[in-house]
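User: Could you write out the 3D structure of this protein bound to 2-acetamido-2-deoxy-beta-D-glucopyranose? I've included everything you need below.
Assistant: Certainly. Input first, then the structure.
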Amino acid sequence: MDVALVRNRSNGSKTVVLIWCICVCFYFLILQMAFKNSSSHNHPAASSSSDPSVSNGEQRSILYDKMEKDLEEHGARFLQHGETSQSLLLSELFTVKDGSLRPVLKEAKPPVRANVLYLNPEYSIPIAEAVKHVFKSYFDKAIWFQNSSLYHFSMFHASHHILPVPATVEEVEAEATAVKAVAEGICPLKIVLDRVVLTSTGVLMGCWQVISGTDPISIRVKLRAALPHAPEKQLYDAAILHTSFARLLGSPKAASMEQSNQLQFFQELVSRLNDKIRGFEAFVSELWYVEEYDVLALALDGRLNVRRFQLGCNRA
Ligand SMILES: *[C@@H]1O[C@H](CO)[C@@H](O)[C@H](O)[C@H]1NC(C)=O
């Protein structure tokens, strides 16, 4: 089973544009399974008052349990290229140039404005090394590794692709100022890697728990208050604290493997990685306000404008 990373584009640019639009939606759906049965968590004020017995940490555990089961329940959908449109689309994100995998960047109009917690390379580099050590030799070019200088936890979007909120230069400045004020009130987080999961769409991600510091649920509440024009519908569950490590784009090199064994093989690799890095602790002390000029710029090394704010832990 080989993977055609480079697709024939003879259908013309309209098709490419259409594919891109669907592709972006698909990407944002990757984590929206998190919304299943947890709609109340999208409204933290409601969830904290409706069920005070479930702690933020427990909410995350329940969510991660679901994410962990996704691959088993839905199979490796990223392998089913050709027949299901999605994985065809995922491979449209990349091309092979001079023997190496390159992202296909597309301008984001208007730019996406994302607020993310930043994972310092002090922590991201050892993780990235472990991820490569376990996965690289099996996947050759059928894997894209997240740039370890840009490991991040998506918190809240002032504008995203599904619901774009255009802003003037002045409005962007005002948003950045408001986010800086939020950062000053957030306490640095000590976090621990709860587990690594591989989704059915091929995204390998780290799911984290909070040991101390301001909980992501509270951070999102503060950001929503500071960014009143932001889309009501956000992309992620309010409790999640995750970072993408890599994207699998196709089958492992051992092409003779049966479909049923492949699932086991993926689970074995994820379990090997968990053995290496589960329990890894990190400190997070920066909130970034990022304008992404290309679609998925943070994930695909596209064009960015980053404003970095230190978490201050000041009382408002
Ligand atoms: C990774 O990100 C850093 C910081 O944005 C950038 O300088 C570097 O060129 C990126 N690496 C690759 C391979 O794109």
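The two ends are 57 Å apart (CA to CA).
User: Perfect, thank you.
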